[in-house]
């Protein structure tokens, strides 16, 4: 399962064989396995803005998660029960995850950014029996608790416990001693993650314990054959999203790499550089939107003591402009990765392996077969556009959508999992990301992907963020419309709009430039930091 230390990508692909252990329990693999070898090894470090940073050992994680698992069982919770986690990055979040896996239950991570309706929808759909949250999360839950009768237990961290809830620390403290980890099999359910809902209602993707093993090759490739001495990883991504949980937290813990957590906040570029510097972060997973926001900080290497070895990125197309900025300004080649909630980490880049190309999201990660196919699942010729697809079976692939066999079946065609993302593959196996099938713009007979235009716009110094959608047009079917968040110091107006149109015309093509540009204060984003173009399409159609 682990990649050998080699510089040959071709050898890795040729020689790789999956060796999934059985039984396999995620909780045991990310805590007890290391605690048995070196209980004093640091597994978690927490950044505090006041400089009072905290740390946790594998021994402590193993013991506290065992105590919490015993507490859950005392409450009548057991194997197969869905237990929600509504917490920010932190030690309690990891402890809850590990405890849930150890007892054979199913973890349901939820983002604190969710409002009442979003929480109610997910808790009901999953049939959650319990939830672990903090005082802020409890304040969100109070209004919806009567509408979620299956939610029998609310466990609150810190001092936020109330008459309708239980104290997290009290539940842990009254159950000292070991816990008999359930001997789960690779295909036994372990984790339920709702899709981000960029193109429609979110669906609950159910994963087995094998999902952790399936992510290891992609994690190692994205971080240039991690683990290496001194590796320490951080991501601004919420651990409720597959990008934070499966791209970073769980694989790193399994490989013995310390994970840095940070307080919840709206992404702040200066604070991000503080975290990278003060916590001596060597590895980072930073989504493209956050990387673009980092560009607002001038001369970061002169102001912060950065010692980055790797940066991985996924979730949206990174784009040539951001790729080159990171290489030139941060001194690190960003390793772009591709996957989705249902089937993650299947394409990747690695500067150490020579698999790196601006504008491409990489090549197939060892152990995964990826192709470009049509709607029926037939592979298209090299260089043609189609859906990015993954061959089934695959250890990283979801078990199915929760209680939705029809949607699960519709996700596959002729043995391929259809991602719904459009791309092109060249003769060397590099894949260029075009965009979601729903996001592609049809204008005057051309099919136009939004990612390339967004990347081009973000290369202009006046643009902080940009999103592009198709707006209905009687003559051209659709026109390209851009929503632009101006950079500090630039005033929006007709003059800047004309300048941006010319910028795209001169760098891309005459048919791809945005005929309409709207300047906005911000863009609608999912909790994972992806632009919700569906909302912008609706807005454009109504204008």
From TrEMBL:
Query: Which ranges carry the AMP-binding enzyme C-terminal domain?
Result: 452-530
Keywords from the UniProt entry: ATP-binding, Ligase, Metal-binding, Nucleotide-binding
Q: Please give one Gene Ontology molecular function term for this protein.
A: ATP binding
Q: Where is the AMP-dependent synthetase/ligase domain?
A: 34-402
One record GO biological process: acyl-CoA metabolic process
Q: Identify the Gene3D superfamilies for this entry.
A: 3.30.300.30, N-terminal domain of ligase-like (3.40.50.12780)
PANTHER family xrefs: ACYL-COA SYNTHETASE MEDIUM CHAIN FAMILY MEMBER 3 (PTHR43605:SF10), ACYL-COENZYME A SYNTHETASE (PTHR43605)
Give the protein family. Answer: Belongs to the ATP-dependent AMP-binding enzyme family.
Q: What is the official name of this protein in its record?
A: AMP-dependent synthetase
Question: What organism does this protein naturally occur in?
Answer: Pseudorhizobium pelagicum
